Amino acid sequence: MNVLLTGGTGYIGCHTAVALTQANHQVVLYDNLCNSHLDVVDRLQTITQQRLPFVQGDVRDTPLLIKTLQEHHITAVIHFAGLKAVGESVEMPIAYYDNNVSGSISLLLAMQATGIKTLVFSSSATVYGDPRYLPLDESHPTSVTNPYGRSKLHIEDMLADVAQSDAQWRIARLRYFNPVGAHDSGLIGEDPNGIPNNLMPYIARVAAGKLPYLNVFGNDYPTPDGTGVRDYIHVTDLASGHLAALQALSLSTQPLHTFNLGTGQGYSVLEMVKAFEAASGKKVPYHIAPRRAGDIASCYAQAAKAATELKWKASRTLDDMCVSTWKFQSAR
Ligand code: NAD
Ligand code: UD1
Description:
Strand content: 15-25%
Oligomer: single chain
Radius of gyration: 19 Å
Structural class: alpha/beta
Bound molecules: nicotinamide-adenine-dinucleotide, uridine-diphosphate-N-acetylglucosamine
Largest sheet: 7 strands, parallel
């Protein structure tokens, strides 16, 4: 297939570019570089031994998208492009709705104009809100508590309407749990600007001595050690989940699919700290801090649907996640 990756130079997009290229798909990267760097294209060349076409553009630029879809004879799109920081979305909701929701509408218009009807969308476990039960299966009710989550849910709902309107669409809504880790080469990974919001990049910077200690947000949750529990998934497993989704869509007779991409296993903050210390050989000092507003106690996936219908399962261990993160961090 000829696959356009919007947000293709971002963290998950570039790992997916590797997985698709290695499975002999033709990949085109489309990104406005608002949260990634052009040197990712060089790094991808080192990893894949191929120069992947890159178009610098915004997903809200419908004419440029149409031109790109046509020029590269695209047959499927994976839509990663978007803004993803929860706290920032509370401060800048208009920017989030513009980028994420308007960007998705622009993409759908471009796909409609060019007759391309196969789409994989990056959604998030955040659409489940505060879990009513665990593990979270795909039929768990959705709810949101911040503009980022609401933008994802709006897009999911729009995609359901699009699939309902025309049975030729093949759409997969992938709900990611907590992606972490990096490519085995150490060449690509997650390198947020400024102080990281998410746990794994924060731990990596503490281990590297770039930050003094980790703040553990709360140790009084109803979890085994009192700290928050999440379903961390290795980004290369997540990437292969996209490959599986594209393959399943090409065989499917149904227009709309929704899958959790997680491992089904939760780890606490303190378990993550221990695992990272073991993988890196470095100390990760921490202080117990108050709970972070909006955080939930536990969140992990029921991963059975993807296993059955996509024939996909995460296989990388927590140690793999920490070792690859450390290799990437050490090379920075
Ligand atoms: P990322 O920020 O590394 O990648 C997103 C990419 O999209 C960046 O390269 C950015 O420059 C680009 N982009 C943003 N707005 C754009 C626009 N208007 N036009 C063109 N390009 C644009 O983030 P990521 O972690 O790779 O996330 C990819 C997708 O997965 C996002 O939609 C995110 O919401 C979703 N997601 C991520 C996580 C996570 O923890 N990383 C969890 C659940 C869902
Ligand atoms: C966050 C987002 C979520 C998004 C997900 C993607 C929030 C509130 N939620 O989820 O919408 O889909 O990222 O990866 O931002 N922690 C610490 N200290 C830190 C950082 C985190 O103790 O410095 C704890 C948190 O309290 C939580 C766990 O580590 O228990 C994971 O946090 P994080 O990596 O930010 O992910 P989520 O909160 O699950």
